[in-house]
Amino acid sequence: MAVYVGVDLGATNIRAVVADGSATILGSAMAETPRGPTGIAVTEAILALIREACGQAGITPGTATACGIGSIGPLDLAAGVVENPANLPDRIDRIPLTGPISKLLATDDVYLHNDTIAGVIGERFHSERNPDDMVYLTISSGIGAGVCVDGTVIAGWDGNAGEVGHMTLDPQGFMTCGCGHDGHWEAYCSGNNIPRYAERLHAEDPIETALPLDDPDFSAADLFDHAGEDEFADHVIDQLGHWNAMGLANIIHAYAPLVVNVGGAVALNNPELVLTPIRDRLDEMVMTNIPEVNLTDLGDDVVVKGAVASALTGGTGDRSKL
Questions:
Q1: % pLDDT > 70, the chain
Q2: Sign for the pseudo-dihedral over CA of 21, 144, 283, 296
Q3: Which of 78, 136, 196, 284 has the greatest count of CB atoms below 10 A from its CB?
Q4: Do 312 and 66 contact (CB within 8 A), yes or no?
């Protein structure tokens, strides 16, 4: 029986799975992402999880046919590594991936993608229509997108395509992004930055609110918990809907997707409050065909399922390649 390995390398957790030719999971292992002392510690953790998942599946690693990897970035695709990951400590400057994994699995068929590209591969593979033109958009601690156009998954020469969270939406630059630039989508609507945006808006117009703006633990979840009960919270959520719709409209104009599936913690935990305002605004922002906008059916498994789908289909998600 042919078996395939999928790896999801996140800033918080790592997951490795083993699947059969129908993408059914046979073994799975997960652990927290090491914080150092170097990137080699992360590589070793991934290899250990692959061995554990293989053990659960009753196979040895060297019998795997192929492996897909969905990873945090930025990537150096030619070298098969993560370079200076933004959400890990500075001492982790380089995480080798394809070389060590290829050696462990005794296969050259190792496909590396950033996590949102793995996401669109998974969405495409598991969709009933297996569409050639689609987008996977994640709204989580950051914002990113994986794009498939005319059956081709767009990776970019270095593997870092899809960093749509760093599109400039606000030329006035009211908010500064974590990358240091002003006006980026992610600076307003990512889970990490929503609290900062709410605080800035309130500083501009300090109306009465029940939001715990002065609490150092104030979070995006607090904002959404007050929806429908707090006028200021509703105002912030309305503004988020405006920026999210504008960002997605730009993606639609650039790539003409048939369907957009949305995931990430912010969307998964607040689907109506995130997706409904986007859908309601697209008609006034988009001059071409408006795609379906859906919440992903794959939940938190979208990246690891995309990694498996990549291994199965040579990095494409195209089921005709099975």
A1: 100
A2: positive
A3: 136
A4: yes
Q: What is the pLDDT of residues 44-62, one digit of tens each?
A: 999 999 999 999 999 999 9
Residue type, 276: T
| Number of Cβ atoms within 10 Å of the Cβ of 309 | 30
pLDDT digits (tens, 9 = 90+) for 133-178: 999 999 999 999 999 999 999 999 999 999 999 999 999 999 999 8
Other C-beta atoms within 10 Å of 35: how many?
Answer: 12
Give how far Cα 28 sits from Cα of 4, 15, 112, 225, 250, Å.
12, 7, 19, 33, 37
Domains and CATH numbers, the chain: 4-108 (3.30.420.40), 130-300 (3.30.420.40)
Query: Is the CB of residue 35 less than 8 Å from the CB of residue 95?
Result: no
CA–CA dist 123, 264 (Å, integer): 13
Alpha carbon distance 275, 154 (integer Å): 24
CB 17 within 8 A of CB 53: yes
Q: CA 162, CA 164: separation in Å to the nearest integer?
A: 5
Map tokens 């719709």 to a residue.
245
DSSP for 198-214, please give it. HHHHHHHS-----S-TT
How is 168-225 classified by DSSP, letter by letter?
A: B--TT--SB-TTS-BSBHHHHHSTTTHHHHHHHHHHHS-----S-TT-TT--HHHHHH
Cα distances (Å, whole numbers) of residue 241 to 30, 50, 101, 300, 310 = 34, 40, 41, 22, 32
Beta bridge partners of 135: 147, 260
